[in-house]
Protein 1
Amino acid sequence: MLLVCTTFPLIWVGGLVTTKKAGMAVPDWPNTYGYNLFLYPVSEWIAGPFDLFVEHGHRLLGSAVGMISIALVVAIAIWDKRRGMLTLSIISLIAVIIQGILGGARVIQDEVLLARVHGCFGPAFFALTVGLAVATSKRWHSIQPVVHPGSGRLQVITVITAALAYVQLLIGSFLRHVPASGSHSDFRVAVIFHVIVAFLVAVSVFAVAATALRGFSEAVAVRRQSMFAVLIVLVQIGLGIAAWTFKYGWPTFLPGGEMFSQLVIHAESVAQAGVVTAHVATGSLIVGVTVAMALYSFRYYSTSPASLVPQVADKSTLRGVSL
């Protein structure tokens, strides 16, 4: 859980780096203006320009996530005897290393494509940390799977929902990192698809909630998470409209434009940066929650009676001590 709780703020700060166009505030990597990353003077970091403060802070927080990932691998190797968990923890460590290299390459090359890949890979890593937290939780170990005739439907819907949520992030990344060669029509098409997929994500999340609440009383975690997903999707829709309004004005396809006709938002203002960054981070949160729903839907229900033989974890298994 510690890894999840540090990765999510990292996504917030990373989103702020992009929003404030601070990605090139520190021109070298892995150093910071010639200093070792961890030896850069705190006084210069705190008192320096805001873009430097954000970018260097992003690097420090990313390093902390990397260290926690190393600790997680060690902890699972010692206390959790499930081979798959050790493999997943190693994959997460490799993923955070790759993400760090992508971030560094983005600085060295100053390339929009690398910035986009870096922005898409972060939420994928966050989803992986959520999966690790779920699989090492007390709730996960306490669940006794049962056979349910409609479980396949619930599992399919949750997987589709998680996939749609991530696809939505990919489209959003294109809108955030528009290439120099991109045309107005390319941007318009991306916006249209972003709106369409947002609608599909909302419908899918509501479908999961309706399905889980109607006939799956055993799946307590899925039911609770589906309701939380409904809430954050509604918040995300509001943030999306607000982000567009703060950057481009009130959407012309929505009523009430006259109310905002005199609204003036300064580019890269605190309000604009806060709303846009919150929209980005909430998108990653939706991915994390939907991944957790999908995992729990498979944990609660088995497709065959033969698979109900419990795989008892070793007493030394991590139980709720997920780093």
Note: The radius of gyration is 21 Å.
Protein 2
Amino acid sequence: MRVLAVGAHPDDLEILCAGTLAKFKKNGAKIFMAHLCDGNKGHFEIPAAPLAKMRDKEAKNSAKILQADCLGPVAPDLELYRDKPTLKKVIDLIRKSKPDLIITHSPDDYMCDHTVTSQLTLDASFMASLPNYKTKRANDVPVCPVYFMDTVNGINFQPTEYVDITEFIKFKEKMLLCHLSQAKWLKEHDNLDYVELMRKQSSFRGLQCGVQFAEGFKLHYVSGRIKPKRLLP
């Protein structure tokens, strides 16, 4: 199986679905981790250009722990739009990874980069199947199931499927800690400890399904994306 996870920023996947990606990997899947935004706005002190380079390196270091391919970005923070040039870039990410399953943000998440990422991923994953929709990559790929991962803090999100990640919580934390630039920023801007946030949310979803730690998902229920079996690990 080939699994593509598409987040808005470096660190979003680590917070919301890295345990599931690790479980997929253990089961033999090929993993692709994409971030559509370059993370260049998330700091009070580091300027945008060097911050983008720093966050790209952090994303690659995290993906390396999982032995995953790191893809993106396609736009700066807060400049991600649902337009034709951006869609073509996301289509190329999908055509490159040839996924059997995609994980991305909920359309109800808390900020524009997350919600636009969700819509771009849905649109591009269908458009990538059309051979007459030309991009830099010539190959078309089949339409595949898309799962929405949890929102930040789980607000306005009721999972329909859960993945027990108890075995992988320390692995998930190790990946998240690669994003050192965000520890100070998130504490100052949002008054949160990102490791504590991740563990509390994973613990809460675990409580809901009877395990110590879990991640929650919702399948995008539309024609052409439903399979007659469980796909999450």
Note: The first strand starts at residue 2 and ends at 7.
Protein 3
Amino acid sequence: MRGAETLSEAPSVRWSSRGGGQMRLMRGLATGLGGLLLILVALAVIGLGLRWLQVRFFYEPLGGERSEQKRAYLDSLAPVDPERAPNFVVVFFDDLGWGDLSSYGSQLIRTPRIDRAAAEGLRMTDFYSGSPVCTPSRAALLTGRYPVRSHTHNHVFFGESSPIATLRRIFGLGNELPRDEVLLPEVLGAAGYATGMIGKWHLGGIPGHLPNDFGFDSYYGVHTSNDMQPLHVYRNDGIELRDETPRINMGAFRDEDSDVEMKGVDQRTLTRRYTDEAIRFVEENRDRPFFLYFAHTFPHVPHFADPEHVGESPGGIYGDVVEDLDRSTGALLDAIERLGLAGDTLVLITSDNGADYNGSPGFLRGRKGKVLEGGQKVPMIAHWPGHVTPGRVSDAMAMNIDLFPTLLSLAGVPLPTDRVVDGRDLSRLLTAPGEEASPHELLFYFPVIGGSVPAAVRSARFKLLASTGDTGRDKASLTDVHRDQENHNLIRRFPEEGARLSEALAAFSAELVDNPRGWR
């Protein structure tokens, strides 16, 4: 029996010996891999540190390779005829949703002055922002180009005191508009226009990349969104009102809060201050063609209403803020009319993207940050007595990239030829009552993160969304935007249309990979 027990135990002894060797081998591998991981982490930290030093002391902003061509183009422009050139005013709201104006269906927010402008002019129902967030949409409007072409397609720029601004530069994303981009104020200024900007810039905060550096003769406003601190108010390159508000978690600060004491900059008075400056600009330049870019801070969060009217709107604090904007727009339109300039001034009223906190996308699906309709379809009103027929409503497909070529066409100024301008001229659509067709065959939509290639494409009737997470599905989704708000995937019912739009999306993506900035 003892021999049998010994034999039966022998295999167990041999297995245990082999298992111990395997354990030692695994421990050795784990130790080696752990050491390798520590080395890799250390190298990454050293690399980031070196990159930080490079960005901190030797930073070169993105772009600049077409600066000579830009200068040659601007120098070639002839002055416009001051007796015939129209004035331009772009009123640009921040995060105003499709359903936030009573002329676009709001039942709670009252906007009689903007509604009157719509009744006296053109109201567009298929107009889009160039992006579902702030920075890239502003770049799209001012350059006439999709945001990827100006390095503004990855989220938004941050204030210079934010570590995220440094991180963006470390990872090669940049935090300012390239100097070789050609902006509307530069072109119009070179052609003899007075150019002014009021409000939110959000296209860079370092010298060489501020409003006055991009063609604005005068500037009054803030460099970033009102949830980024400090929110200094600038007059041209200098701080006029220094924000000394204690640092708080602005990301969680959604609405006006009496516990927060604002020092130096009272956001409740921003809209009123902006409006006074806008009217002053118009008064000072009444005798020459002018371009005013009036980029409001609101209704971006946090929401601050004018103390004289807070609590008046049935739409709550958000409604108070939007109704402040309506009063501001009315005061500006009144000033233009009082000065006898209404028939000479095209006023365009729109928003940088769809609704955010407390705002309404109306019946649309999605909100700010999404390439769904609620993220990018925005109000657009054109007011120009004697030129835009009153009471018109247009469902022509258009985007804010179209304002660049449209205003230049109306001013009689040629487009630059060394780069792609993605926008199309809407001047006939605005001024010719029988002209209802969109100049676009297709429009492309870019996601907020990783937007180097488009995530969606739209034709006159259909919209194809790639698998971006915005659809809630793993596969591409085709919707009929005239009959459905992106709820039903029709790709099996209309396979040929799905294939056509898919090919267009792939072709444009390939073009952007080969030539992202659109140089010619």
Note: The chain has two domains: 85-440, 456-514.
